[in-house]
């Protein structure tokens, strides 16, 4: 391969590694968001399930590794270091295999994850008191913004321990339908109504939450596909550059 082709290959490999670094940063940022977010549905799952926490740590790890590989790939391309290019190719191959494996596992675990999510929400509704500032207030925020009540419907709240053990007509304040007449609107906790005809939303949050999760999964899936494409191109270019780099003639090195 001529010097012109080597230079072009180095240039493109540098650009692809820069993109790889950026995509890695995005994946790591998404993992950090999942880990520390306390204003969305993720916070509800995270409080009750270790699966979400493990997934966030995996995303952070993969993102960090991708950033490191992008950096070393740039160094290997600029200085034409054969061993570093070979190591870069091997690590990219391992990362790509891990990504495909994780995607297949998640695909076949969709129903168990959906079942686990449903149990987490129903358990939180049963034990709801309005005092927990993480999961309960996050769920209140979801019901207010999505204009829904309960998981499958407002009937889920009939299993709440505080409501069952009270002689008053209580309902979650965040379920309050503003278009209906009733008591003053509150954001969290349990509210009292004079009659059994409660002024709450009639639809459950399951459909809205699943749509929200699918939308966010689409974002992370798009990032992962982008990273995979960059990985494949980086592997091809790294091998082309590695082959074109002139090997030193080690037979000329003095032997001792």
UniProtKB/TrEMBL annotation:
Entry-linked SUPFAM superfamilies: Tetraspanin (SSF48652)
GO cellular component entries: plasma membrane
Primary localization class, coarse: membrane
Cited Gene3D superfamilies: Tetraspanin (1.10.1450.10)
Annotated localization: Membrane
Annotated membrane topology: Multi-pass membrane protein
Keyword hit for Transit peptide: no
TM spans (from-to): 12-36, 56-79, 86-108, 219-242
Keyword list, A-Z: Membrane, Transmembrane, Transmembrane helix
Domain of life: Eukaryota
Entry similarity comment: Belongs to the tetraspanin (TM4SF) family.
Protein name: Tetraspanin
